[in-house]
Recover the amino acids of this structure.
């Protein structure tokens, strides 16, 4: 007598899905929740100081000065975030700024080099400095911390040798790089500079088009996109921010600062480099897992080398902007610039361990530092306490980021 065995062919009960933490749910949004938080923090800090300074922070001339005074931080932060994403650090940029600025100033004053050629000379020297440090990091294998610490001493010493005393009397055309504004060729609309309004309108249009194209590209490749409401809110917020900034700047004495245009071009170019090119993807891959990137065919040494060449180039650009703003070169120029750039990157969301960071985040971090500087100065806070406050802001920003990552990984 055979025994019949019945088999249950009904579909098995699916296992319970794990509950996602709040941090993981936020990360599931199309955008980076950390980036949204950084923008929100910038807005809160601006509004706070606008109240504490009795409305002086957002005066038109103060807003223009904010960009002129902090352009060097933004330029250095662009290069520094690439270095940090790749898992390195650069402690020498302040000394490089002093050295390159000294060479540029001496070449113009003592050797009658035209200011345009002197600018190219400064950028070229920055590239050579970056290649020198990149060689030791990429091909000799010395940690970047040690190489750039040595570079901080070497180039500060060279700055002292080149600039024995303050080098002043620089050409006005050179000084206008940092202190000048775009010429008002379109006149005024009331008291508003029309050139500034046109630039702002073009910037808003470019942002909207780029965001729509990026969203369409994600959908075309069946990738996750953020909710429509969140996407619209993000685009509207960015456009509104640019619009408010444009209107305020249009009332300033000179309109759009030349250096703001320079920083804007660099932000667009390097955002494209990091987000849309093979080189940019290689930088993120190396920062995420250097060994895996190497096994995948990434030439890690070559990428590391060019990262430091690029950092040298941007340090040269920062040297030109700094020297033009002060109208002179001194051996003490660039003091603590490396700390400002590193702080801007970490406040802007770069990970200490590498692999994470955005150009836009670094710029927002630089603006946060700049608003703190200007707001505290308007309030006549002692410089020593300003340093304390900025240090605490940096510490809290990194601690907040680490706590969020731990929470997302454990809940």
């Amino acid at each position: 007598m055979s025994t019949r065995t019945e088999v249950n062919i009904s579909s098995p009960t699916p296992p319970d899905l794990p509950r996602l933490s709040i941090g993981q749910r936020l990360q599931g949004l199309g955008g980076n929740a950390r980036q949204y938080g950084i923008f929100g923090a910038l807005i809160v800090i601006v509004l706070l100081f606008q109240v504490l300074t009795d409305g002086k922070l957002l005066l038109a001339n103060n807003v223009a000065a904010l960009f002129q005074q902090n352009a060097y931080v933004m330029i250095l932060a662009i290069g520094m975030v690439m270095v940090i994403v790749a898992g390195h650090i650069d402690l020498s940029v302040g000394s490089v700024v002093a050295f390159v600025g000294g060479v540029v100033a001496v070449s113009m004053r003592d050797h009658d080099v035209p200011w345009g050629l002197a600018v190219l000379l400064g950028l070229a020297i920055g590239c050579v400095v970056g290649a020198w440090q990149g060689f030791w990091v990429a091909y000799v294998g010395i940690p970047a911390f040690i190489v750039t610490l040595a570079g901080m001493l070497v180039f500060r010493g060279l700055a002292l040798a080149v600039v024995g005393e303050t080098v002043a009397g620089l050409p006005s055309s050179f000084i206008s790089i940092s202190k000048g504004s775009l010429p008002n060729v379109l006149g005024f609309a009331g008291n508003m500079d029309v050139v500034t309004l046109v630039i702002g309108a073009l910037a808003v249009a470019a942002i909207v088009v780029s965001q729509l194209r990026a969203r369409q590209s994600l959908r075309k490749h069946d990738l996750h996109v953020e909710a429509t409401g969140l996407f619209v809110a993000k685009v509207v917020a960015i456009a509104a921010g640019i619009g408010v900034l444009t209107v305020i700047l249009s009332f300033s004495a000179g309109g759009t600062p030349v250096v703001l245009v320079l920083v804007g071009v660099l932000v667009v170019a390097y955002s494209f480099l990091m987000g849309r090119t093979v080189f940019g993807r290689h930088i993120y891959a190396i920062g995420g897992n250097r060994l895996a990137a190497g096994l995948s065919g990434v030439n890690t040494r070559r990428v590391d080398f060019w990262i430091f060449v690029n950092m040298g180039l941007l340090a040269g650009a920062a040297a030109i902007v700094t020297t033009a703003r002060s109208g002179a070169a001194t051996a003490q120029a660039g003091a603590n610039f490396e700390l400002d750039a590193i702080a801007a990157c970490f406040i802007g969301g770069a990970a200490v361990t590498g692999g994470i960071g955005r150009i836009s985040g670094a710029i927002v971090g630089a603006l946060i530092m700049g608003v703190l500087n200007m707001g505290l100065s308007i309030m006549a806070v002692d410089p020593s306490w300003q340093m304390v406050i900025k240090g605490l802001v940096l510490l809290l920003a990194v601690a907040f980021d680490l706590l969020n990552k731990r929470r997302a990984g454990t809940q």
